[in-house]
Amino acid sequence: MIDEKRLTQIKIDNDTTVSVIKSKLLSKFDDKIVHGFSTRLGGVSKDHLSSMNLSFSRGDERDNVLENHRRFAKALGYDEKKLVFSDQVHKDHIRICTEEDAGKGIIIESDIKETDGLMTEVKGLPLITFFADCVPLLFYAPDINTVAAVHSGWKGTFLRIGPKTVKLFRDRNADISKLICYIGPSICGGCYEIGPDTAENFMDFNDGIILRDNHNGKYNLSLQKAIRKTLIKEGMKEENIEISDICTACNSDILFSHRKTNGKRGNLAAVIMLKQ
Ligand SMILES: [Zn+2]
User: Fold this and answer.
1) Distance CA 140, CA 119 (A)
2) pLDDT tens for each residue of 142-162
3) What CATH number did the domain enclosing 136 receive?
4) Could you tell me the distance, in angstroms and rounded to a whole number, from the CA of residue 1 to the centre of ligand 1?
5) Is residue 104 part of a domain?
6) 190 alpha carbon to ligand 1 midpoint, in Å?
7) What is the average pLDDT value for the chain, to the nearest integer?
8) Can the keyword Calcium be found in this entry's annotation (predicted)?
9) What's the rounded Cα separation, in Å, for the pair 153 and 62?
10) pLDDT for 43-66, tens place per residue?
């Protein structure tokens, strides 16, 4: 069970408290950015979507999802009507978002398709990506004041969407030795068992720590450590990469886990925004 002290509890009105998870590294830049990862706590959705489902695609009532967004946004401090939604398909496309993208996916219909990563240098434009075991990556380049939110499941990790995001920061003249990455709450290596077909894609990580062969046709994969290794290979400093040790499957009472519930679940979200 997760220690309650690991959660940041934010009272948004007299009877509502929203629990969020914050990065220690990104919190050092609280004067420059807003960031956070949601939990199941503090929303209005029912049953297996209880209570803070942030996706319109999980069979929830639209009004519930909108109210959850209002609450999560109020807790973190951004305007939910300006959110830019990803369209996650386990690929490696990253979009550079502009002011014209504000509200796409929440109040206006979106032309953002097949996009697992969002990046922006626009202040006041919150980027959101969705999770229930897959790995959230939140990036901040302090020298060029630019942020990114990325979804990296095993396919995205195999396709190196994290390092590709780093390359985009480099293209924009960021000093990669200063780039920060938060690898957020997601399924841990102990819970994430995979078969040989998936493991085949990670044989270059077969070091017993990132990928462990259980010698029974099953393997355990730490996506978080695999991602960290690829980010360091791309030039990031180890001390600028934070891996959350909070597992979605180990804590499915307060976080949504696809594996733990056989897919009967809502979606968590990771948000990052440059402050005005
Ligand atoms: Zn776990």
Assistant:
1) 10
2) 999 999 999 999 999 999 999
3) 3.60.140.10
4) 10
5) yes
6) 6
7) 97
8) no
9) 26
10) 999 999 999 999 999 999 999 999
- In a domain? residue 215: no
What is the CA(108)–ligand 1 centre distance, in A? 37
Q: Are 211 and 202 in contact (CB under 8 A)?
A: yes
Distance of CA 74 from the midpoint of ligand 1 (Å): 30
Instruction: Check if the beta carbon of residue 68 is closer than 8 Å to that of residue 80.
Output: no
Contact (Cβ atoms closer than 8 angstroms) between residue 34 and residue 275: yes
- 42 domain residue, yes or no: yes
Total number of domains constituting the chain: 1
Q: How much distance in Å is there from the Cα of 189 to the middle of ligand 1?
A: 7
How many angstroms does the Cα of residue 200 sit away from the middle of ligand 1? 22
Q: How far is the CA of 187 from the centre of ligand 1 (A)?
A: 5
pLDDT band at residue 77 under the 50/70/90 scheme: very high
Asked if residue 51 has a cis previous peptide bond (ω within 30° of 0), the answer is yes
Which residues span the domain enclosing 134? 4-186+242-274
The reply to whether 217 falls in a domain is no
Consecutive H or E run containing 232? helix 223-233
Centroid of ligand 1 to alpha carbon of 8 (angstroms):
21
Q: What is the pLDDT of residues 118-135, one digit of tens each?
A: 999 999 999 999 999 999
CB 230 within 8 A of CB 200: no
